[in-house]
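G., the chain you wanted modeled:
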Amino acid sequence: MTYQAKPQLKINTTGFAFRDFMIKIATSEKFDSFIMFMILGNTFVLTLKWYAMSEFASYTTGVFNIIFSIIFTIEAIIKLIAMRWNYFKEAWNQFDFIVVVGTWLVIAVMEMKMPIDLTILGTILRTLRIGRVFRIVKRAPSIQIIF
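Predicted structure as tokens:
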């Protein structure tokens, strides 16, 4: 069995201090580890839903979800500034971008308090956001072989 890896996109510095700083952040191992930790934290928070959940617990998980959404939006912005259109050449970035945009669309629609039941949107969004945990596969070659 052979494993084929795609070549990693190398981002060269540009001479523009702000973009070079974004490139430095986007390619940093610490930034990547932080985002992975946030994905795991978000996945944990998304699993915290149960029957007869108190209003406080529901509110608290909602606040955490907004915080995670902001963090993932900032991640996407940093990577977009650093990589420009090359950001969309990687499948995980495309998936992350769709999840980030979808998150904000669902939040906006839910806040409109329409008279129709939109809970399915929240369920779909949670499923997509939990799917981000599979990015960890990207970091573990032994798991990549299994997938």
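The helical segments are 17-26, 29-46, 55-83, 91-111, 119-131, 136-139, 141-146.

Shout if anything looks off.
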